[in-house]
Specification:
It is found in: Cell membrane; Membrane. Residues 39-269 form the ABC transmembrane type-2 domain. Belongs to the ABC-2 integral membrane protein family. The chain crosses the membrane at residues 38-63, 75-94, 154-179, 191-209, 244-263. It holds the Pfam family ABC2_membrane. The protein has ten helices and two strands; from the N terminus they run H-H-E-E-H-H-H-H-H-H-H-H. The chain has helices at residues 23-33, 38-63, 76-106, 110-115, 121-149, 161-180, 186-202, 214-220, 224-237, 244-270, and strands spanning 65-67, 73-75. Helices cover 69% and strands 2% of the residues. Strands 1-2 form a two-stranded antiparallel sheet. By secondary structure, it is mainly α. It is elongated, with a radius of gyration of 20 Å. It has one domain (22-270).
Length: 272
Amino acid sequence: MTVLTEVPVRSGGVRALWAGNPQAVVQRGLIAARSSSWAVVLSGFFEPVFYLLSMGIGMGALIGDVTTSSGVEVSYAAFIAPALLATSAMNGAIYDSTWNVFFKLNYGKLYEGMLATSLGPLDVALGEILYAMLRGLLYATGFMIIMQLLGLNLAWTAILAIPAVLLIAFGFASLGMAVTSYMKTFQQMDWINFVLLPMFLFSATLFPITAYPEWIQAIIMAFPLWHGVELVRGLTTGILTPDMWWHVLYYVVMVAVGLVFTAKRLRALFLD
C-alpha cells in the first residue's frame, strides 16, 4: 500500500526542506503499528500507574501532606501524580523518537526512501515527531483518567494538563530525534536511558525541589522534565502562577531547536 502521497517535486529553497506533507509519515507509522506488539505499548502506560499506586498511595499514607513549590499543601499522591503524568508523556515520546528512529535511520534505511520522493527533511522530521507525540498523548490520557478516578485532579484547570503534556511530548520527541540522528551504535543509545533516569528521579517528581541545596536546585531547573512537572502540577492542583509561561516558553524553544537540528541532520545525511 502506498503511503507517501504525491506532492510537487522539490525545486530548491524552502521546497528543498518542506513539501507540506508530514501526515504521510504519520500515516505510514500508524499502518506499521498494526503489526507491532501492543504489550510493549501498554508496558509504558502501566509503569507510572504502578509508581502511583505503590508510592503515591502506599508510601503517601506514611508521608501525609507535601508542600509544593508554590507553598500549598497537597496530599503526597496529588503531589507525585502530575509529575508521573509529565514523565509518562516524556517516556512515550522518547521511545518513538529515539529507538524507533534509530532503527529506521541506521538499519531500515527508511528515511533514504522517503527523501527519494518529494518529501523534504522537515516533512520527515515533523512527521516522525508527530507520530511520537501520539504515544505520549495515549499514555498521558490514560493516566489522566486514573488520576480522575482517584480524585487527584484538584481543580478544573486539570483539563489543561492534556495540551500541556502534548507540548511536553512534542519537546522531548523533537530533541530526542535530533540527538538520535547523530547516534551510530546501540551502545551510544544507552546514554539516553543514562540521562532519563536521573532526570526522572531528581526533577521534583517524588519530593519537593526544596529538599536540595540551592546550587543543586539551579541544576535541576535546567532539566526539561522539571519544567514539565511544574507546569502540569500547577494545572492539576489549580495553583496558577506567571512562572508557568516560562515553562511553556522552555518547551517552545526545545521544539524549535529539535526540529531545526533534525531537519539539517537528515538533509546532511541523505541530500547533500
